[in-house]
Design goal:
It comes from Streptomyces katrae. Keywords: Signal. This is Lipoprotein. The protein is an alpha+beta fold. It has a domain at about 60-220. The protein is about 15% helix and about 30% strand. It is built from 3 helices and 11 strands. The chain has helices at about 5-20, 80-95, 105-110; strands at about 20-25, 25, 60, 130, 140-145, 150-160, 165-170, 175-180, 185-190, 195-205, 210-220. The strands form 3 sheets. It has a 5-stranded antiparallel sheet. It has a 4-stranded antiparallel sheet with strand order 8-9-10-11, with no helix packed on it. The radius of gyration is 26 Å and the shape is elongated.
Amino acid sequence: MRIRRPRALAVVALLAAATGCADVEGLKNQGDQGTVHAPRALWKGYFPDPPGPGQQPGSAAVVPGLPKVPGLSMRGVDALSVVRADITSATAEDGGTGRLVDPRAVQRLALCTQAVDGGPYCPVRPGVLHDLTGNGREELITALDVDGRVSELRVYTVRDDGRIARILSRRGVLEGVEVAAEHLAVREPTSNPAYISVSDYVWDPNTKSMSLSQLTLDDCPTLSDVPLSADRQRCAR
């Protein structure tokens, strides 16, 4: 249904568009405000293939090869064993394509020894326990540092049947990882050193995984008292 506007309003709108903004003293010319262009879609005929079964990064999955957890508690679970089993199975599943895990991750895991903490060169970060699902049971949060910049973030939970499942996998430059209540926030640098992206993940009971709920940009003041190379900056977070 077409709605006709009163003629007087249409004339005022045309005058305002032609001459600038109006105030209580009448119309004023604000100069050339530029031309508004509609978005131009690129490569309209190109679409990515949908991910195959098990080929969706970040999706929930039971980690194979691990014993069931007694008491349904992550306390006492060896984080390194969980990460090793997860990385190994994910690498085999994606065929080394890097879709599910960085191809270098398995080689990096080889640096870990049989020591409790994996030894001085082990790239797996100490596990952190925090309840993200809201069921009163703590999840295991850890990461594998692939190199000096890129990391594989991993979050695991214990299901009701005692099996350990990965509920979040994310590759990125981890400027910071924060937990608050049932939220997990990942801070990453952007191409603009003045800003940092913040990805907020929350538990989704439907997918039984941590799902992205909000993506924002935050100011990124740099540290002036930390020596860095000329082409690098670090957030004061």
